[in-house]
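Email to the structure team, subject: Phosphatidylglycerol lysyltransferase model.

Hi all, the expression group asked for a predicted structure before they design truncation constructs. Nothing fancy, just the tokens so they can compare against earlier work. One-line instruction: predict Phosphatidylglycerol lysyltransferase, return tokens.
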Amino acid sequence: MSRRNRYVFSVMLIVGIAIFYWSFRTVNLKQAWLIIENANWGWLLVALLAMGVYLLMEAIVVKVFVDTQNAKLSWGQALRVPLVEQFGNGITPFSTGGQPMQLIALAQAGIDAGRASSILLMKFVVYQGMIVVNFILALIVGYNYVADKLHAWALFILFGFVIHLVVIVGLLLVMYWPAFTRSIVMAILAPVKWFSKQKHQAWQQLLDEKIDNFHEESRRISRDWGALLKTIGLTFVQLFFYNLIPYFILLGLGATHAHIILVTALNVIIVMIISLFPIPGGAGGAEIGFGLLFSPFLSSAVLILAMMIWRLITYYFGMFAGIIAFNIDGKKERS
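Reply from the structure team: attached below.
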């Protein structure tokens, strides 16, 4: 792990500790300990297992896209991809670091960069598409509830929905419009020509080859409807388990009256709130959103504890696991 990544991770860890400390400033420690003692740890363990299933499902999606007659990805390498993605997402604004981290992991497994880029973009398009589908379903179930609780924030949530749609359209243009992709790459590469025409020409030739591989793989994936439909179904199930995590936490802390459909829908909306915050991990916005949306289900002290457990499972668990996976040298799997 680079010095910069260690620095950002340390900063986010300090920010998280500060947020937890600030949240607990009005909570009686004896009361908090009593809540922990009376918690149903079985349900809290189920919440952690749901996060494990979420990561496992993503590993399966990676294998489905990568595995062909000419190349195979081991289960160890497939599991490494979503873990390093969690680390990359956790230390970068708007979760932009997840894709490069996954690309590094696949390259270390011996997957061509052009093919790996196409696979990751298609995987990302499917993931974003399922987020949009889940968000539409969540709005049907819980928009009135959210509008009542968040007021003006409801408009920002809809704005986030529009951004996700624009991202999907932009990615599809990159994947299936070669001229558009080349124009973007050449524009980025142009400054190199100012310093070295020879290096510019060599890089252009290399990138042309990678772009050709990228678009060839994109067309192959598009024609493989079996794999595409399988990954859509897997991603939907993956997000379903992720969105169930707050429900299991509420059950573990005694909120037996929580409605599973409403709680699941509210978590979808929280994910949309997090995506609007430029701070890595949506720090601050995630905690505020959780507190506002789930306040009717728990008392203030229990709510703060629920928020802390939720963040530990959905954010910090992935980051720590990602650090371990990132520092495990990827053994190359050759076709």
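The first helix runs from residue 3 to 23. Residues 3-327 form one domain. Ping us if the truncation boundaries need rechecking.
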